[in-house]
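Example with several molecule types.
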Amino acid sequence: MPTSPGRTSSRASARVGLSAVIISVEGTTPLLLTVEASAAFPGEDAGFPGDDAGGGPGLACLPGAHLDDSLDGTLEQGVRRLVSTQTGLPVRYFEQLYTFGDRDRVPGERELAVAYLALVRYQAVQGPGCPRWQDFYQLFPWEDWRNGRPEVIDRAIIPAIEAWLAASAPDRLATRTERADLTFGLRHARWDPVRVLDRFELLYELRLADEAAARLAAGPARAAARVSPTPGSSGGSRRRGGPREAADGAWQPRARSTGLGVPLALDHRRIAAAALERLRGKLAYRPVVFEVLPESFTLSRLQQVVEAFAGQALHKQNFRRLVGAANLVEPTGEEDLRTGGRPAELYRFRREVLRERPAPGLGLRRLGGP
Amino acid sequence: MPTSPGRTSSRASARVGLSAVIISVEGTTPLLLTVEASAAFPGEDAGFPGDDAGGGPGLACLPGAHLDDSLDGTLEQGVRRLVSTQTGLPVRYFEQLYTFGDRDRVPGERELAVAYLALVRYQAVQGPGCPRWQDFYQLFPWEDWRNGRPEVIDRAIIPAIEAWLAASAPDRLATRTERADLTFGLRHARWDPVRVLDRFELLYELRLADEAAARLAAGPARAAARVSPTPGSSGGSRRRGGPREAADGAWQPRARSTGLGVPLALDHRRIAAAALERLRGKLAYRPVVFEVLPESFTLSRLQQVVEAFAGQALHKQNFRRLVGAANLVEPTGEEDLRTGGRPAELYRFRREVLRERPAPGLGLRRLGGP
DNA sequence: TGGGTATATGCTCACTTCGAGTATAAGTGC
DNA sequence: GCACTTATACTCGAAGTGAGCATATACCCA
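Resulting structure tokens for the full complex:
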């Protein structure tokens, strides 16, 4: 229903986009579903995601659509519609993630994106928009600590941080050092798997995320503005430590530095980072993992999947003790013989726990390693 | 900048409202800031919040405004603008809460609300919209357990739940019983202070929240639709237990049952419930309490405020051990002599903890009582 | 002046949880 | 049979949690 003119000023309305971060897992690989840029908003003019203004052609993006007032009674219904249209996947878990609304997140017009997190069991996809599963850690190579500290941190990130600190005005040095330490677990700080978004934003400012370089060419002020709002659970918290870096003429990026990880169109990689952060945070206190697993599974498989999302290896014996104590699963009585060793018991998720305990999750308090 | 017609279909745009849940504390009372309905969206036609369609005149509502494309580079800037215009309060913490977008949350047109949580230190307010501090627990009397189990639970809520269960079809009984037990900590389930929104939604369905009755008169389907999306951290999780109650002709509300708690206009009390839930959840792992406290405070005062938000009394000695162990505060060296007993040491918040530990909060794992 | 009361603060103790290691069970392939 | 792989069980010390007891220092009032 169009808003009646004279009652609604043109300023007061904006396009409302819906974005879906669809997550699954296959083997030990956490997966993100992307589509071709041209397909995300079918029927749009050219000039949207994938062309040169957005950072070169061929960038994938998140499945998205605009809210359709006649079809979508609720936002979630809208997202369900778009997921089923573009991918056909049955979604097992839905959660609103964050609403992105910076003025210039889409060049040329004001467009909000209400982003949703969706979990599905893995299956091959096809659809109008060439949907494709992507390894999450190809987008965020620094987030995968399962095989130890990712080499990209020492090779590229720490040097960039040091250069950034070296170029800092003295009054900013302390703040910046603190921020870098905390975000990447340097010095005395420990790596916190959950701070995915903080890390992405810092790398973005350091021009180590490729979108930054492209966007920067269009004008530094815009690039800086895009970074300012901070979604997710760590929301406004960090603002208290003093204002974050404003647009800062002093620091010049290395010309066209190699971007780290595979970029997505526009701010979609940022949205994906917010989703990974939310997912990791939830692992500890909500039984969300089970939504990407089949009906029955072995404990090793469960651990594999948790490790895939957490980006961290876990202590095997403690993991099963935790799962046992949490009463999250029950044995089906069957066995998986394909283990290559002793057969593993198969388990199923006990949905009843949802009513038994306030916050049923694998109580991974600090997502502790092995 | 107006969207150019012909490019944007009328369906794809909606009004974007911004809502602020401004929270503070005075004494032992947690506070929510409301304004007169007519002031929330100045310059609107009549027919918005406070008139009879919304549940009777005189209902207060949350401070709100529409996104102004020319003024608000980001959503957060927009909320800052509206808070400062309508209340003049200096906000110390900001966090995006949830985006509400059901078709009929505002009668007559599609309007999104992007809600923000804001924390301020208490001070008297005045402004164009008659801003007023409200006791949070007058809106949600069942949430305050500081002086034991609130009488309203046994007097009104449990009877209503029992009537609801008695009127249930047999195949729904189990699901409904589970839901009620879990939500209100009946039987074997424990009361979980965080599940504020679950409780509000159940009471809403039971017609114990006043907005429901008013809205119901306009048409049951609409009322049911408004309940469907579930914001906050417990987002989609509960959907897994099977679909929630759909619009259900079988259960008839008692005619005009006494509403529990003070209602707000439209769905604003729901938004406030989401905010309280978020705040309670955050207490444990982010040092947000300090944003409503003055620079220096006694440990008892700190505990008082935590208890006010948590709605639960805490064990004093353990609380101070927790605070001490968390290294969240440091003594100022001064004392508060107005205690009426032994003078209390004054402390200040150590902002450095934000960089030392991943999730610095009062580690109230289960918000454990005394 | 001294006791009663209120508040603040320090400490103990049993119990649970957590991290890490060691040991055993039960399959496969040769 | 053996070597190898994976699954599962159990142990033990360190740290954290919940509850209570004890002490310190103010005020009030007889």
